[in-house]
Amino acid sequence: MKVCPLTHENAGVIREIFGYTSPSVLGTKSAFGTGDRIGGAASATPGHIRAAKNYDVAVFLAQQSVRENARTGRTFRQVLDDATWGVFQEGYKRQWGADADHLMDLVSMGQAVDAGFTMFTVDPSHCINYKAFSNQSHPDGLLCV
Predict the structure, then answer these.
(1) What is the average pLDDT score of the chain?
(2) Which of 1, 23, 72, 137 is 20 to 30 A from 62, comparing alpha carbons?
């Protein structure tokens, strides 16, 4: 047995050797997102796996938003690596997903793609013209929805 540090490089090797430690595209399977908000040595991923493994549902073990990453000082790469280590620790062989949440720009999306995320939740709220929802938008007083 070889003991190695939990680095990004080693997580990449683990994902290459043990395919189940890489996230999958889950499509339309019943799923829910757990998203380990802390990661690192205090990773919640093993607990999330133990809670979900007896149910017929897929899990998004890596699920984080740009805002959450900024507040916790993490990157999409770190989020995915932490999930990989939790999957490896638990020997979890079922498919799991990685959701990059609330993406508002192409830079963040590129970072999530480069990290290996498999689902991308786009948040276009900054593009909405909220004046379109007022009664003044239409002569008939209809809302533009």
Answers:
(1) 90
(2) 1
Domain boundaries, the chain: 8-137
> Which of 73, 84, 66, 68 lies closest to 22, judged by CA?
84
What pTM, to 2 d.p., does this model score? 0.86
d(CA 7, CA 81): 8
Q: Could you tell me if 49 and 61 are in contact, meaning their C-beta atoms sit under 8 angstroms apart?
A: yes
- Residue 23 contacts residue 43 (beta carbons within 8 Å): no
Position 64 scores a pLDDT of 95
Q: Which residues contact 84 (CB under 8 A, 6 or more apart)?
A: 11, 14, 15, 21, 22
Q: Give, to the nearest 10 degrees, the angle between helix 76-90 and helix 45-52.
A: 50
- Which are the contacts of 141, defined by CB distance < 8 A and separation ≥ 6? 135
Per-residue pLDDT tens over the stretch 104-143: 999 999 999 999 999 999 998 888 877 776 655 545 544 4
The amino acid present at 97, given as its one-letter code, is G
Considering just the CA atoms, what is the radius of gyration of the chain in Å? 19
| Cβ proximity of 64 and 74 under 8 Å | yes
